[in-house]
Specification:
By secondary structure, this protein is α/β, with parallel strands linked by helices. 11% of the residues lie in helices and 25% in strands. It has a seven-stranded mixed sheet. It has a four-stranded mixed sheet with strand order 1-4-7-3, with no helix packed on it.
């Protein structure tokens, strides 16, 4: 049985522990699955990823708990929920903090071309400026306009950060990636999206690609393909736009502060800017200029 929580009762003995080596974890104790996100305010420290226990049973802030039916844990309503809908296979570039992901060099915009392969930068990965960002993977459209803004099984494709990796700083490819996490209910996200296509048109020839991620619809429910279509078509996006219904990028920010914006140096996948709220991506943006080395 799949259950979506909205809060955890303090009486359920919530405890914060140090995060494990892996950014996300699976804990199997029975048949029921519980998708649970626990607000950071319920924990004593401030780090983004927390390994938590509920009545002695470990579970992850961004993961799934497969609870033992014998525990009979009473469940109340959770502040926000986000996690993967199915058990993930271990990807060495994401879960193993000491290895990188290998992928075809011709993949995506950031590939090296040809038939070889290149390894995504190894961990440890982090969530702060100066850290290497993990290889987040999504489903979406590389160019929504090219498919007439139709997001369905025939057009949606896997899009990952490694698609943009450009270790040689090839000037024919993007050298900087600007990532924005948006939701349809977010008025500030809409304000930023209004100028996004024009901003991208200015910065893309200089070496900056935009990547828009959609995590929720207008009712605070996980984003679906129809939401991607609505958003990309309304704002006339011609750049990569993806779905993030599990709010994978939630490790960086509180969704109530959306939009979240991040600038990544594609030569080494290092975060050079991260913040929430309205971001002016216009021609005078000094963060972009700095990331480009101007």
């Amino acid at each position: 049985m799949l259950v979506r929580l909205e809060s955890v009762s303090p009486a359920q003995n919530l405890r914060c522990k140090r995060p494990p080596k892996r950014a996300e974890g699976w804990f199997r104790a029975g048949d029921d699955m519980i998708d649970c996100f626990v607000a950071e305010s319920q924990c004593g420290d401030t780090a983004g990823d927390k390994n938590l226990s509920l009545d002695g049973v470990p579970f992850m802030r961004t993961g799934w708990l497969i609870a033992a039916s014998a525990l009979s844990i009473p469940l109340l309503l959770v502040a926000a929920c986000s996690s993967d809908p199915a058990a993930p296979e271990i990807d060495e570039g994401i879960d193993n903090q000491e290895a990188g992901t290998s992928f075809g060099g011709s993949s995506g915009q950031g590939g090296s071309g040809g038939g070889g392969s290149v390894a995504y930068p190894p961990g440890p990965y982090g969530h702060a400026v100066g850290n290497v960002v993990q290889d987040f993977q999504f489903t979406g459209l590389m160019n929504p306009k090219a498919v007439d803004y139709v997001a369905d099984n025939s057009t949606l494709k896997p899009i990952a950060l490694h698609d943009f990796y450009n270790p040689t700083k090839d000037t024919s490819k993007p050298r900087v990636l600007f990532v924005t996490a948006s939701a349809r209910w977010c008025s500030v996200c809409a304000s930023q999206a209004t100028s996004a296509q024009a901003d991208r048109a200015y910065w893309q020839p200089k070496g900056i690609e935009f990547l828009e991620t959609m995590f929720e619809d207008e009712n605070n429910e996980p984003a679906e393909p129809a939401d991607l279509t609505f958003w990309a078509k309304k704002y006339k996006f011609e750049f990569p736009t993806v779905l993030d219904p599990q709010l994978k990028l939630g490790v960086f920010f509180d969704k109530s502060a959306a939009p979240f914006n991040m600038i990544i140096d594609l030569s080494n996948m290092t975060i050079v800017y991260a913040g929430t709220g309205l971001f002016d991506a216009g021609q005078g943006n000094t963060d972009f200029s700095k990331a480009l080395g101007e």
